[in-house]
């Protein structure tokens, strides 16, 4: 069965640029962002890895650990890192998995189970499905899945926005409307009755429709 939001993120052991890790232990009590790349030394991914390195303080502030993945070996990641530093102004400052046996790619439904052989002989086009983002909560459940085509770079500002929403809605019984950003009004969750809402929000709420109850973002 394909992974879905709410599924437990598959655990695994893997070699990374920062040593061997066991994924669930590595996550610990944090949130995690697992993002994958079809091949080292590919142009769009080079820009993405640099962008993420520059944004790492924003993820740190939110308690989100970063983990990259490519089917190429760890020593190739190290060589690619120098290109990323040279062209993007920052090198990866987070671990990158060397998924040379395709184990993680298969566990996360990014490559077919039948894939085998030498990863060095595979092209980016062979691995084009490996362009995913998984946001995983401290409970090890998948909170978000995004899949990008090879020709479209990821929008990490949008990913930060989603993390802000996920963390807020995990703590409070609210939902965030379209294009919501940190600090803006939110919607009282449908699971909260009006009677409950009166105790949670004694100052009341705006309700253009009975099912659309708008309140300031909880602190």
TrEMBL record:
The alphabetical list of record keywords is: Antioxidant, Oxidoreductase, Peroxidase, Redox-active center
Species, as recorded: Bradyrhizobium aeschynomenes
Taken from the record, one Pfam family name reads 1-cysPrx_C
Family, per the entry?
A: Belongs to the peroxiredoxin family. Prx6 subfamily.
Q: Looking at the keywords, is Lipid metabolism present? A: no
What name appears for this protein in its UniProt entry? Peroxiredoxin
Q: Which InterPro entries match?
A: AhpC/TSA (IPR000866), Peroxiredoxin_AhpC-typ (IPR024706), Peroxiredoxin_C (IPR019479), PRX_1cys (IPR045020), Thioredoxin-like_sf (IPR036249), Thioredoxin_domain (IPR013766)
Show the Gene3D superfamilies listed in the entry: Antioxidant, Horf6, Chain A, domain2 (3.30.1020.10), Glutaredoxin (3.40.30.10)
The protein's matches in PROSITE patterns, at most eight in alphabetical order, are given as: THIOREDOXIN_2
Q: Specify the Thioredoxin domain's residue ranges.
A: 3-168
- Species lineage, top-down? Bacteria, Pseudomonadati, Pseudomonadota, Alphaproteobacteria, Hyphomicrobiales
